[in-house]
Amino acid sequence: SQPMAEPTFSQEISITSWFNQRYQIGNELVFDETEQVWFCQTMAGYTVDFGGRDDGRVNTTCSIISQRLQIIGGRRRALREGLNRHNNNSTMRRLQGVVFNQVEYSMTYSSNYTNVTSYPTLFQNYVNADLDRLTTDLQNARLAVTNSFLAFNNIATLAPTTLPTITPRPTIATPAPVAAPTALPSAPFVR
Known about the structure:
The protein is α+β, with helices and mostly antiparallel strands. Helix content is 25%, strand content 32%.
């Protein structure tokens, strides 16, 4: 018996959403190029968790659009409050400010097999449901993140604008890859 062909859309469905998210970081640096790849690999990896598919049928692309450092407290306050008034030696102590990296990034989901129009909302809900997990995952990806805050979806763009029709596509068996790439891809990361 021959396996049934999985239905496909006559046109690929693709949706892109832009997110803003703030991360408390342990240094005063935005993510460098390598860290941006690690960030995007982490975010794109969540597609399997909320989408339930790990068969390559949904393509996920993450791209960092901009980063902005915000330092709250810190140097100015340290100079005002830093005097040790309890002894005559006027020692200054430096108080550490809280440093945030405000990251704007896009997530694009596309597929000929899966209706991905709800994926931006599923992504946002998944990320925001457990910010401690997100922080740990980013730390495991070697990012200096000490705290993660809610992701806000700015806008979503759906392409194509016409509703797809479902047509059967013949199933072609392909062997699984035997080796993984040895070098990190450059940003943007595509899963």
